[in-house]
Amino acid sequence: MKVTYFIKKRILLILIVIIFLIIGYNFAANVYNNVGYTPDQPIPFSHKIHAGDNKIDCLYCHHAAEKGPYAGIPAMENCMGCHSVVAIDKENIQQLTRIYSEGKSIEWVRVHRLPDHSYFNHKWHVNAGVECETCHGDVAGMAVIGQVNRLEMGDCIQCHRNSDYSQQYAARLKPGDKASIANNVRWYPYLKYIDSLTLKSAEAKGIEALKKDTLDVEPATGIFPHHNASVQCNICHN
User: CB under 8 Å to 58, separation ≥6 — which residues?
Assistant: First the structure.
């Protein structure tokens, strides 16, 4: 009986230690990855008011996100396009107007930052139909912007393997259209690189077919190549 009691106590102690280790690991990982980071900005800016209450599209301010790797910070002209007439009696807007009239820019504090060895292209993801909220959380509900996801490599790989962004692509096709790289690369510029089945098909049909963009991109599985994006190391670590 004493032996059994001793074993049970040891098992309970081990379980408690494991639970504390898990809690500690998650806390440390969140701190390391800046989860919960909500820095003070030079001028208070509420995404809740702009994107939430007033339904301003993310790309109105962060229009560079659909054109290149970085979402970018909106120019002062973007702000003044509205605030030359909207809420001009507010102290924050008066400060904004003063900075603009002096020909200066606001030094916003960056919130999201990936390691230098990682490469993320906003254009690829926006054009594939990935919503901003997937990575950035419910921005439209944030009075103060902050980081809500760890943005670890595991998050990227899970999304690349399991997400289905083929519906927008399929909706663009008309009856009789040939699903080829040539007529869709303008929407999905990374299409050539993201599907191993396409590359295997290229080997079977000859690499010249791939070079000429005439290779069929719908594999035998019926899944479009960008259904699952690449998880090859050199796509994100180049």
Answer: 51, 65, 132, 139
User: Residue 216, SS3?
Assistant: strand
For 63, the token pair is: 């229009």
Residue pLDDT tens, the chain, 238 long? 555 766 777 777 777 778 777 776 655 555 555 788 889 999 999 999 999 999 999 999 999 998 889 998 999 999 999 999 999 999 999 999 999 999 999 999 999 988 888 889 998 888 777 889 999 999 999 999 999 988 888 888 888 776 655 445 445 545 544 444 444 444 444 444 444 455 455 455 554 544 444 444 443 333 344 445 667 787 788 6
3-state secondary structure of 100: helix
Half-sphere exposure (Cβ direction) of 68: Cα atoms closer than 13 Å: 7
Among the residues of 47-195, which ranges form H helices?
Answer: 47, 58-61, 76-83, 91-101, 122-127, 133-136, 153-162, 166-172
